[in-house]
Amino acid sequence: MVSVRLRIDNPINPYQWNVQGKANEPITVAGLLDKARQILGAEVAHLPVTWTLDEIFTRLENNAPRVAIIGGSWDHPAHVMDLWTVLRAAMSLWQRGAVPFYCATPVLCDGTAQNTMGMSYSLQSRNAIAQMVVNHLEAQSYHGAFVVQSCDKQPLAVVCALAHLDVLRRLRGEAPVWATFAPVHVLRGGTIPEKLRAELEEVAQRAEQMGHEDIA
Questions:
Q1: Spans of all domains in the chain
Q2: Is the dihedral of CA 36, 40, 42, 47 positive or negative?
Q3: Distance, first Cα to last Cα, the chain
Q4: Per-state percent for the chain, helix, strand, coil, to nearest 5
Q5: What is the SS3 assignment for 25?
Q6: Which residues are registered as beta bridge partners of 178?
Q7: Nearest CA among 36, 37, 104 for reference residue 68
Q8: 73 φ/ψ sector (left φ>0, alpha ψ -120 to 50, else beta)
Q9: CATH number for the domain formed by residue range(s) 14-185
Q10: What is the pLDDT along the chain (216 residues), one digit of tens a residue?
Q11: Which residues are bridge partners to 101 per DSSP?
Q12: 3-class secondary structure per residue, 108-176
């Protein structure tokens, strides 16, 4: 654990004034770090267990950086490996003097939604995700974010939310919002079966014969 306590220079610290936050949030931080130690196993076994409720309480009291680790929903292929990235980030943040929290947003898949009414909701999800991120970071008073990136509509939504929040807090005379982004987990793309490829080629040729080059 770091010997020098980090502190965000901010005139507002709800965790110093509000007993409810200090009663609730140390439980979530300790739970996250306990889970990281349990699942990561030998990878973090050499690190001492320093996340006592008293230490978490002290960091909150002193306005240590409160960092939201923002993941996505596991029903999107880009997020099926989030857990390990989240746990490593949480452990690293704690070791550097911050207070890590985990939250996630639904992430709609354009591919799944394509050619159905679902595509309308995929487009709308950018605004919905941005709104959720702003709401959550404001409600929990987080200083910044470590974002596990996705694809489709999620990246722009989160960037939009953090930019909006930064402007809002600067107008209130508070510390700026900061964030860093982890790259998405890349999955290998699939292949089109030969039978289906032949059928698609036939449709394309028919479309050209009918004068619909745009469809072809």
A1: 14-185, 189-216
A2: negative
A3: 61
A4: 55, 10, 35
A5: helix
A6: 144
A7: 104
A8: beta
A9: 3.40.50
A10: 555 688 999 888 988 888 888 888 999 999 999 999 999 999 999 999 999 999 999 999 999 999 999 999 988 888 888 999 999 999 999 999 999 999 999 998 888 888 889 888 988 999 999 999 999 999 999 999 999 988 888 999 999 999 999 999 999 999 999 999 987 666 666 788 999 999 999 999 999 999 998 888
A11: 68
A12: CCHHHHCCCCHHHHHHHHHHHHHHHHHHHHHHHCCCEEEEECCCCCHHHHHHHHHHHHHHHHHHCCCCC
Contact 75, 137 (CB under 8 A): no
* Residue whose tokens read 């985990």: 102
Rounded distance, CA 127 to CA 135, Å? Answer: 12
Q: Which residues of 54-88 are buried (b: 16+ CB within 10 A; e: fewer)?
A: ebbbebbebbbbbbbbbbbbeebbbbeebbebbbb
Written as six digits, the tokens of 142 are 């987080």
What is the four-CA torsion angle of 200, 201, 203, 205, rounded to 10 degrees? 170
